[in-house]
Structure of DUF2283 domain-containing protein:
Amino acid sequence: MAKNNKKNKISYESEADVLTVEASSKPIDYAMEIGNVVVHFTKKDEPVLFEILDASKFFTKAGSIMKKSGASRFLYNKKPILA
């Protein structure tokens, strides 16, 4: 597997409450909306851009679900998981 040294670009538009993650600079051909997430793809079906709509609600709900499931202990551990 080739190593990708390019950093993902992440931006947040507070007025629209949209978090955008650019995973690639490849040209976008089409997009699909899956719940509150819009995923943009290339002609070869590679994901390029992710938009999380109502981002503040999305992350509040995700945090609540993680807390209930016990998964949050991995995020808020006092010691680094990978050292």
Summary: DSSP finds two helices and five strands in the chain. The mean pLDDT is 82. Residues 9-75 form one domain. The first strand starts at residue 9 and ends at 13.
